[in-house]
Structure formats: structure tokens, C-alpha cells
């Protein structure tokens, strides 16, 4: 290989290297700041048809939509719900184009626990399903998060009673899973969230549910057919685990008020590993995660501690994309690997072309 060829290859590599930071520069998270007086949202989901977020209020019977630009619109106001009811978990039912909302009345309000389904085309309620109690319940139930499968069946976590309800797409409700595993692990009674058990829940396309437990930091895998549960073996617990989201590539994200854990599994969640952690703004009290547009994951900052302390008057809240710097670095490495392979191929091509020209010249002469 001649000196001129080496010089050309070196120049090409330097040009590609100079472009590297431009190609791999970390993308800034998408941040949406919006105003809605006294909303205090806990649950969040994404409507892929209307292309907006949907949030509920822990203060009243209102559900709002929030656009990418932060434009807020009242989507649903249901006067048939008790006044001052809390709307917690939300999820979008792709089968029926419905919004599913877990509804709870916090003490000292009269007991009320239900799952509501709303047709997003007409914005009318399809059903309001009251969730049954178990005879062994010592405290009144606490409906919290909700997930939905590909048949339109909804699964709602009971954070107080540590079991899961199932509500089919006709609104018929039953207790689905009350595994003894859900109460098998020690709870720190001094923790401010010791009362909160099963919380965030997601449905996997492989046919099972994953659910996290706030007061133990554990994750469970639940069979969608019979409700049997097993502990997912993780490399660490996730204290005060709250919301969950699952990406199309199978990566699961779990948030607490302090951080987001990113987890993956090689055996369909017999075991799993936390491979990244992302700090959140604890002062703004994040609660839930959702999958947004283009597979991006977002967390809602609802300032719920203010609401639970009886404060009012706040009108500014936020939705923020969760981005893994570790994944960005790994993507950068792969880009440089591809650049190196491209350079090697170019060098090989140049060498082959030079040999071909030399052979042709010899034959011609």
C-alpha cells in the first residue's frame, strides 16, 4: 500500500472522527411544562391516536390531555363519580380505544374503589366497575395502577390489600391474584410508605404481568391465565418502587420519587438485572411512567406531597423524557465500530482497485 493511499485513508478517518461527536452527541430530554390549576396528576398514559398525554387528578373528577407543546384540555369530567375522588393509574386500551382509570377515595372520604372505562372517541363512560373486596381485608382496598392485555382485560393493583383485580372488557370485576408471595417479605414499618404494597404494573406481550411492590422493592411475575406469581430475582431491590413502563425491546423501567431503574432479562423475567439508574427531581415528586411517541419513556412530576398535605394553588406541573446516558454511550461505541468497519472496507476496496488497474496496465503494455 502506497504512502498516498495511507494518507488518503488517514484523512478520511479524521473527517469521520470529527463528525463523530455530532452524530453521537447526547440528545437532550424532551421536557413539557404545563399549567392546570390544582390538578396534581398521579397517573399518566399516552394516546397514540390523538398524539397526546392523558393525566388524572388526585383532587377531583377531572382527566386532562396535554400536548407535546404543553397545551392542556379537559378531556373528561365525570359528575357521577364522588366529589374529591382520586384518579390514580391510567392506561390506554388499544383494543377498544378506551381510557382505563383506577379510582379511589382516600380516607376520611367514604369508601369507593372502581375502574372506569371511557370511549376516547365519544368521551363517554363505557362502564364503572366497582372492585370487590376480599373477606380477609382488614383495611379498605386501595386501587392504584392499571395495565391492560391484548384482549382488553384490565389488571388493577390493590396497594393496601396486596392483591390484583381483573376487569374484563365488559366491566366484570373479580379478584385475580392473591399470591402468598405478595405478603412474604419483610416491611420496614418505620418507612413513610410502609402502608403501600403492590403498585406499578405492566403487561408483557409474551403473556404475563410484571408488578412492583413499594414497601419491599420487590418485583413479581404473574401468570395471566391463573394469577400464579413468582419473585423475579434481581441484583438489587428497588425501594419505594412506584410506576412502571415496558419498552418494545423488553426493557422495563421502574420509578420511585428519587430515580428510575432500567432493567432487562434474558429468561423472560425469571431473573433480571438493574443495568442503569437515572436520578429524578425528588422535590417535584414524580409518580408514574408511560411510553410516549417513538418509543420514548416519560415521567410525570405531579407534586403530590403538596396535595396530600392539603396545599392548593399550584398550577404548574411537568412531563419529562427519561434518557439513559449509559445507553447513549453504548450507541456511540457502536457508531464508531461501524465507522471503523466502513474505513476498513474502503481501504480494502482501494487496494483491490489499485491492483486491478495495475494488472490491466500490465496486460495493455
UniProtKB/TrEMBL annotation:
Q: Which PANTHER family match?
A: MESOCENTIN (PTHR31460:SF3), PTHR31460
Tell me which positions the record assigns to the signal sequence.
1-26
InterPro entries for this protein: 6-blade_b-propeller_TolB-like, Sensory_adhesion_molecule
Q: Where does the sequence pass through the membrane?
A: 332-349
Q: What is the name of the protein in this document? A: SMP-30/Gluconolactonase/LRE-like region domain-containing protein
Record flagged with keyword Phosphoprotein: no
User: Organism classification, top ranks?
Assistant: Eukaryota, Viridiplantae, Streptophyta, Embryophyta, Tracheophyta
Name the GO cellular-component terms: endoplasmic reticulum
Instruction: Enumerate the UniProt keywords alphabetically.
Output: Membrane, Signal, Transmembrane, Transmembrane helix
Amino acid at each position: 500500500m502506497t504512502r498516498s493511499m495511507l494518507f488518503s485513508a488517514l484523512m478520511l478517518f479524521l473527517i469521520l472522527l470529527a463528525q463523530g461527536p455530532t452524530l453521537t452527541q447526547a440528545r437532550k430530554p424532551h421536557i413539557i411544562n404545563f399549567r392546570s390549576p390544582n390538578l396534581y396528576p398521579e397517573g399518566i398514559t399516552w394516546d397514540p391516536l390523538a398524539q397526546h398525554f392523558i393525566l388524572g387528578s388526585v383532587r377531583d373528577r377531572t382527566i386532562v390531555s396535554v400536548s407535546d407543546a404543553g397545551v392542556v384540555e379537559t378531556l373528561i369530567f365525570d359528575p357521577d363519580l364522588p366529589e374529591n375522588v382520586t384518579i390514580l393509574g391510567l392506561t390506554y386500551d388499544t383494543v377498544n380505544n378506551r381510557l382505563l382509570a383506577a379510582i379511589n377515595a382516600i380516607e376520611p372520604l367514604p369508601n369507593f374503589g372502581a375502574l372506569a372505562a371511557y370511549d376516547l372517541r365519544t368521551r363517554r363512560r363505557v362502564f364503572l366497575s366497582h372492585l370487590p373486596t376480599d373477606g380477609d381485608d382488614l383495611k379498605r382496598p386501595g386501587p392504584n395502577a392499571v395495565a391492560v392485555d391484548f384482549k382488553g382485560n384490565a389488571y388493577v393493583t390493590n396497594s393496601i390489600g396486596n392483591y390484583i383485580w381483573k376487569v374484563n372488557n365488559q366491566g366484570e370485576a373479580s379478584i385475580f391474584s392473591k399470591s402468598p408471595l405478595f405478603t412474604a417479605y419483610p416491611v420496614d414499618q418505620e418507612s413513610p410508605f410502609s402502608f403501600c404494597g403492590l403498585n406499578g404494573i405492566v403487561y408483557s406481550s409474551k403473556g404475563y404481568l410484571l408488578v412492583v411492590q413499594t414497601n419491599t422493592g420487590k418485583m413479581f411475575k404473574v401468570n395471566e391465565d391463573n394469577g400464579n406469581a413468582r419473585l423475579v430475582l434481581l441484583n438489587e431491590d428497588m425501594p419505594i418502587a412506584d410506576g412502571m413502563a415496558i419498552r418494545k425491546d423488553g426493557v422495563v423501567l421502574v420509578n420511585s420519587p428519587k430515580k428510575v431503574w432500567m432493567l432487562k432479562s434474558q429468561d423472560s423475567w425469571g431473573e433480571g438485572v438493574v443495568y442503569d439508574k437515572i436520578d429524578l427531581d425528588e422535590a417535584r415528586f414524580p409518580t408514574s411512567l408511560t411510553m410516549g411517541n417513538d418509543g420514548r419513556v416519560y415521567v410525570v412530576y405531579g407534586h403530590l406531597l403538596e396535595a396530600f398535605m392539603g396545599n392548593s394553588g399550584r398550577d404548574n406541573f411537568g412531563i419529562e423524557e427519561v434518557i439513559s446516558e449509559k445507553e447513549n454511550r453504548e450507541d456511540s461505541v457502536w457508531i464508531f465500530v461501524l465507522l471503523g468497519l466502513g474505513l476498513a472496507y474502503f481501504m480494502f476496496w482501494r487496494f483491490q482497485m489499485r491492483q486491478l488497474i495495475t494488472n490491466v496496465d500490465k496486460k495493455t503494455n
